[in-house]
């Protein structure tokens, strides 16, 4: 007897390895055993692949030939890594939409959030055993687990801590017999209650919206204790939502990069002196310390643009030019960190700035505390406090329009920044090589002319010879001025552009989180209109989407505010340096001109 099945609902494949089904279609099965809710078989058109087990009913009927061998028969159920499921199911028009596919099993190897970040490699400031021991977050008791705790009533915590939860009792609705938990369920259900419909999960479990915890938060699965110090407040300012300003603003200088050694000279590294203005106490940090901090912040704050660090370099790390360039890049990075109302007050950043360089024990304790922070992922969004009351609600259509406008803005700014970087780099190269060479070539030609005139021993021509020789020296000096000028004006502009290109690379993920939340709101509203979801449940989803929207708009406003400040200052500096440069050139030419007055 061949294994066969009849399709109960339409299913459209949208990923490689899947096949489409038509209602009432008969399929040949490769195996009756489903793998994480999927079966493998051949449809009536001869296509072979995977389809949801809950969309078919297994039947037994004679067949002319044995079923094809199952390619996945030897894969254990617990270890199966499913193909990326389709973006959306499209059941028959007369059927209600199916319930969502579950996420991959616990322990599924998700890549870290913000895939652009990679921890420091051995090619640049290796990790040392005395700084980073072998313990991990998973080894520590009380570390954040893979699932959120069940809903508990607020209160009961320590003073200054509040139990917040978005979790609600799941409405299971009618389940068909023989569907174990975690498997896909068929559409419909016959006599389902209004609350049986749920907002589906994203089938792409590797999207930023999912990995950041935004989806779990919007769907009401976040629960945790929020301390007063962890609250991130969004307020309504003249330009809309803004992060609440840091009540104790400060700056931090980065000075005196010095080469140091350890292990009796076997290990060399560059240490930078940091002097925060709010403590006045200097500390020394290596690049790997900056790199660790960046990794923690990028993971913790999915809706905040953490500035990128200057690029790593495998060779030439101790060359003077590279050290100077890196220090300037770190100075820009530090300025943006201190200027951000949220990042500046983060515990991990304050530990980085204030922990004494010589206290390894205190450093490791603060490091482990940051790595065990439970307010990450979906729980991070619990820490965001947004305006309430009349006039504080957001119009989602207006929010969507603002975010779309900012998305177009960042795309255009990124293209312009790339173009200006290329142009400035090419112009600087010409000044250092071409312009210097050409001006010095002119100077050399004047010098040759003066040497020729010196063959005339007449006394009345001596003054002219000296004036022409001085003109040659002036042009030679102007060539040197051109070669040195990019350090004064173009290089700072390119350093700023590099920092902002990092910000612009961050915003697609930030926007994706907000867009994902908005999609869930639209889906919940559709369920309410169709009578499949209670209004209260949909309002909860919209309220949590508002929190993400408030935070996104606050970050956008902060970006624009700091952008205007930075580019105003940098363009003023650029033009001032250009004026000084041409004044120096003019001065050299005027000095040469005055030499002819006495001829």
Automatic annotation (TrEMBL):
Q: Name one GO molecular function term.
A: phosphatidylinositol binding
Q: Which GO terms describe its biological process?
A: cleavage furrow formation; endocytosis; endosomal transport; mitotic cell cycle; plasma membrane tubulation; protein transport
Q: Which UniProt keywords apply?
A: Cell cycle, Cell division, Cytoplasmic vesicle, Endocytosis, Membrane, Mitosis, Protein transport, SH3 domain, Transport
Q: Where is the composition biased (Pro residues)?
A: 85-112
Q: Where is the composition biased (Acidic residues)?
A: 123-133
Pfam families the record matches:
BAR_3_WASP_bdg (PF10456), PX (PF00787), SH3_9 (PF14604)
The chain's coiled-coil residues are none
- What family is it from? Belongs to the sorting nexin family.
Name recorded for this polypeptide: SNX18 protein
Q: Which organism is it from?
A: Copsychus sechellarum
What are the leading ranks of the lineage?
Eukaryota, Metazoa, Chordata, Craniata, Vertebrata
Q: Which gene encodes it?
A: Snx18
């Amino acid at each position: 007897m061949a294994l066969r099945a009849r399709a109960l609902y339409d299913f459209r494949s949208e990923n490689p390895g899947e096949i489409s089904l038509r209602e009432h279609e008969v399929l040949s099965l490769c195996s009756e055993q489903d793998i994480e809710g999927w079966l493998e078989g051949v449809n009536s058109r001869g296509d072979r692949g995977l389809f949801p087990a809950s969309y078919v009913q297994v039947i037994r009927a004679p067949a002319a030939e044995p079923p094809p061998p199952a390619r996945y028969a030897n894969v254990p159920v617990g270890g199966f890594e499913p193909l990326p499921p389709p973006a959306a199911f499209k059941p028959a028009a007369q059927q209600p939409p199916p319930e969502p596919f579950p996420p991959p099993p616990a322990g599924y190897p998700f890549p870290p959030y913000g895939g652009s970040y990679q921890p420091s490699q051995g090619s640049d400031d290796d990790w040392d055993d005395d700084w980073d021991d072998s313990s991990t977050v998973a080894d520590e008791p009380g570390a954040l687990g893979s699932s959120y705790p069940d809903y508990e009533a607020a209160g009961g915590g320590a003073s200054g801590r509040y139990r917040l939860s978005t979790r609600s009792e799941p409405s299971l609705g009618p389940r068909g017999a023989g569907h174990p938990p975690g498997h896909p369920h068929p559409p419909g259900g016959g006599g389902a209650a209004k609350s049986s419909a749920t907002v589906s999960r994203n089938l792409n479990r590797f999207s930023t919206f999912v990995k950041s915890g935004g989806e779990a938060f919007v769907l009401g699965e976040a629960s945790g204790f929020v301390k007063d110090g962890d609250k991130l407040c969004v307020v309504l300012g003249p330009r809309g939502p803004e992060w609440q300003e840091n009540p104790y603003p400060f700056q931090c200088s980065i000075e005196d990069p010095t080469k140091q050694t350890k292990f009796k000279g076997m290990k060399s590294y560059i240490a930078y002196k940091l002097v925060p203005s709010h403590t006045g106490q200097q500390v020394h940090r290596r690049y790997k310390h900056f790199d660790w901090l960046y990794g923690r912040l990028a993971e913790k704050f999915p809706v905040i643009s953490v500035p990128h660090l200057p690029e790593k370099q495998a060779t030439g790390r101790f060359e003077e030019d590279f050290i100077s360039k890196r220090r300037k890049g770190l100075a820009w990075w530090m300025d943006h960190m201190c200027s951000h109302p949220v990042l500046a007050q983060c515990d991990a950043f304050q530990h980085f700035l204030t922990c004494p360089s010589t206290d390894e024990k205190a450093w490791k304790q603060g490091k482990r505390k940051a790595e065990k922070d439970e307010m990450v992922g979906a729980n991070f969004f619990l820490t965001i406090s947004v305006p309430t009351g009349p006039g504080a609600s957001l119009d989602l259509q207006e929010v969507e329009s603002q975010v779309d406008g900012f998305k177009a803005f960042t795309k255009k700014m990124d293209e312009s920044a790339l173009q200006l970087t290329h142009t400035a780099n090419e112009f600087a190269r010409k000044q250092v090589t071409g312009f210097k060479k050409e001006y010095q070539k002119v100077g050399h030609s004047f010098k040759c002319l003066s040497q020729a005139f010196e063959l005339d021993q007449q006394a009345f021509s001596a003054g002219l010879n000296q004036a022409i020789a001085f003109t040659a020296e002036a042009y030679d000096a102007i060539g040197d001025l051109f070669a040195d000028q990019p350090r004064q004006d173009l290089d700072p502009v390119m350093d700023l552009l590099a920092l902002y290109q990092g910000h612009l690379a961050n915003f697609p993920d930030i926007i994706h989180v907000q867009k994902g939340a908005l999609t869930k709101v639209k889906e919940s509203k559709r369920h309410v209109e169709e009578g499949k979801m209670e209004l209260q449940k949909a309002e909860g989803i919209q309220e949590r989407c508002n929190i993400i929207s408030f935070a996104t708009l606050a970050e956008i406003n902060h970006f624009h505010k700091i952008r205007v400040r930075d580019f105003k200052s940098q363009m003023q500096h650029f033009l001032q340096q250009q004026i000084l440069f041409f004044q120096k050139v003019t001065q050299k030419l005027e000095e040469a001109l005055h030499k002819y007055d006495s001829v």
